[in-house]
C-alpha cells in the first residue's frame, strides 16, 4: 500500500531529475571510439578546471562569510534597535529575493561599470566585483531566517541578563546569537550552495577573467562545443553541491539539537 503512494512522486523525481542526470553522466563517458574516461582525464588534469574549481570555492566561501556578517548585522538592527522605518527596511531587503540575479549584475554595471556613474570598471570586472554582487544578492537569504530567530528570543531572558549586569556585547554573544545559531547555519549553507552554482551574476557582469565551474560548463558546452567535457564538469559540480547540502543538513541538525 505504501509503495502505491510512493510510486507517483518517485516517477516524477526520476523523470525530471534522475533521467537528465543519467544522460549527463552518460555523455561524460562518451568518446569517439565509444565509451571511456578520456574526457574525465582531460578535464581533471587541466589547469583550467583546477583554477575554476578553486575560484568557485573561494567566491562561495567569501560570499557566504559576507552574507552572514551583513545579514546578521541587519537582522540585529531591525530586531533590537528601534528606529522609524525598520519594517520598511526589512521589506526593501526582502524584495531582493524576488529579483533574478542578473538584475543585480545589471545594476552594478550601471553603477560601477566603465560607463557607469562611479566608473570603477576594473573593480567590477574582477573577482571582487563578482563577490560584492553575490553578497548583495544573497544577504536576504541569511537575514530573513536570522530575523525570524531573533524574534523568538524571549524579552524576559534579555531583561534578566541585563539586570544581572551583562553588557550588550555579552548579551549578544551569550544569549542572542546562541539562540539564532541554527538559523544562521542554515542560511549560511543555503547561501554557499547558491553561490557555488551562481551563473547569471558572473555572466552579466562580464568578468572574463573570473572563470567559475558554471561558467566553464557554459563555455565548454555552448561556446566551444566540447559537450563531453562540459558534462564532466557538470557532474563534478553536482557532486560538490550534494556534498555541501549533506554537510549543511548535518550541521543544521547538530546546531538545532
UniProtKB/TrEMBL annotation:
The keyword Phosphoprotein does not apply. It comes from the Bacteria. It is a multi-pass membrane protein. InterPro entries: MetI-like, MetI-like_sf. It holds the Pfam family BPD_transp_1. NCBIfam families: PRK15050.1 (NF011624). This is 2-aminoethylphosphonate transport system permease protein. The lineage of its organism: Bacteria, Bacillati, Actinomycetota, Actinomycetes, Pseudonocardiales.
